[in-house]
Specification:
Blueprint: E1 2-11, E2 22-27, E3 30-36, E4 40-44, E5 49-53, E6 61-72, H1 81-84, E7 85-89, E8 96-105, E9 111-114, E10 120-123, H2 137-163, H3 166-192
Antiparallel strand pairs: 1-6, 1-8, 2-3, 2-7, 3-6, 4-5, 4-6, 7-8, 9-10
Helix pairs in contact: 2-3
Amino acid sequence: MAERIGARIFWMGEHPLQPGRKYLAKVAARTVSATAGTELAVTDLDQRRTVSAPSIAQNEIGTCTLEFDRPVAVDRYGECKDTGSFILIDPDTFDTVGMGCIEQICEQPARRRWTLRGKAKSTKPSEKKITRWTETHARSLAKAISWRATGSLDTFVVAFVITRNPKIAISVAATEVITKILIYYFHERAWALVPWGKR
């Protein structure tokens, strides 16, 4: 997850790429706001060298730093083309004005937070630990039993109210316990294989 990248850009827009101007960057399926840094360079194809430039004009290839308004999952282009490439879109016309590949993932800048005394302190972005849960067979079975115990009690009460016979109510509830536990267990195992909704 990065907010700043170093990229090689092929510029197609009528207006040149300007430092400080905001664009829309589409990386894989994510679209975020992106701002070009002040250090721009253009590749001189005749001399085969890169020189500093105030902007990157139409049909020019250059390098720049892009800063996103939020963290984006990216990779270097050499490691993964899908998350290592992007397009830039003009936010006013929604025209594609540039495309590029990520060459470097820059160190994230320290963020500032204000104290009660009004002084700013630099803090590094906090690292979030991602916990992945795995649903075991024993857990699925325990959940099935606890759920059916509650449901079977309800079934017994309903059957007793209808029949006024406790033996019939108990037999209906007992039969339901066995069948519903098996159904719920296989239902849980099927959902454990589905990645949708997991974090």
